[in-house]
Write the structure tokens for this entry.
Amino acid sequence: MALVLDGVARWPRKSMAVIGSSLGGFYATHVAEATGCRAVLLNPAVDPARDLTNHIGEQTSWHDPAERFFFQPEFVDELRALQCPGLRQPGHYLAIIAKGDEVLDWREMQARYAGADLRLLESGDHALSDFETHVPPIMAFLGLD
């Protein structure tokens, strides 16, 4: 995260935005809170330190099960250190949350981003397979329409 924040240190805050999905949404929240920029979150992870504790050890890559990696306990500590206690500027966030998310609990996401511009989808999935339908509201939220 230090590298990310260093990389965006000179970006103009008023026109800067971050977008993240799942764990990327957790990271995007941290960047937005640290910089005051806008953020678009797609089924964002709310408490990855809690959720990933059960996955410490050797894992296989989702996209290539032949590829293996080791998820270390220190990674959970690093995630815990990035947890933001609350949103300082909820209006800087657009959260697109699918009730049909098979990985994360939509109720946790909704509660975490209360006060933000929430798009609560009655169905959908974790990958937001219908992502293209969400592009226009994302562009509008970012002032790029």
Summary: Residues 30-46+88-145 form a domain with the Rossmann fold fold (CATH 3.40.50.1820).
